[in-house]
């Protein structure tokens, strides 16, 4: 395993491939996120969690934010998520929300606006292409991201009972 500097230091125009996942049990409840970053022969696994009340959507958003923020210089990224909420939000909805003062079409405040703004900022540094992958379908790095998210959630829960 390498650190983020190694992942992005010698990228050139090569692509960094990222798989992310997040979730809670129950939802809402404690949650975790995970990310797998690959570039050439470099691999970095990342995870974290929230022991307090959070949501699946917040954890699904946190995973790509943390992965993109870990890259130390602008690169081309292929980001894979099993969350249609995240992919549709960042590729279709976010510009309209921003234009409308962070209100939905129904004039309601956008949920998780803090994370959407942070994700926008993280994406702005890079050339990001988004891909949806079916969860639990045998895609190795998606399965690994799921395992990392579970580990993040378990560690967050364990730290809260100490």
UniProtKB/TrEMBL annotation:
**Any single Pfam family the record assigns to this protein:** RNase_H
Catalytic activities: Endonucleolytic cleavage to 5'-phosphomonoester
* Example of a GO cellular component annotation carried by this entry: cytoplasm
Where in the cell is the protein located?
A: Cytoplasm
Q: Which residues bind Mg(2+) 2?
A: 21, 146
Q: Which InterPro entries match?
A: RNase_H (IPR050092), RNaseH-like_sf (IPR012337), RNaseH_domain (IPR002156), RNaseH_sf (IPR036397), RNaseHI (IPR022892)
Task: Identify the cofactor(s).
Answer: Mg(2+)
Q: Does the keyword Metal-binding apply?
A: yes
How many cofactor units bind, and how? Answer: Binds 1 Mg(2+) ion per subunit. May bind a second metal ion at a regulatory site, or after substrate binding.
GO BP annotations listed: DNA replication, removal of RNA primer
Question: What keywords were assigned to this record?
Answer: Cytoplasm, Endonuclease, Hydrolase, Magnesium, Metal-binding, Nuclease
Domain spans labelled RNase H type-1: 12-154
Name the top EC class. Answer: hydrolase
- The entry marks the following residues as binding Mg(2+) 1, namely 21, 60, 82
- Enzyme Commission identifier(s): 3.1.26.4
The signal peptide annotation in the UniProt record is none
Please name the GO terms that the record assigns under molecular function: magnesium ion binding; nucleic acid binding; RNA-DNA hybrid ribonuclease activity
Family membership: Belongs to the RNase H family.
Known function = Endonuclease that specifically degrades the RNA of RNA-DNA hybrids.
Looking up HAMAP family in the UniProt record yields:
RNase_H
Q: How does it assemble?
A: Monomer.
List the protein's name: Ribonuclease H
Species in which this protein is naturally found? Mycolicibacterium hodleri
Q: Coding gene?
A: rnhA
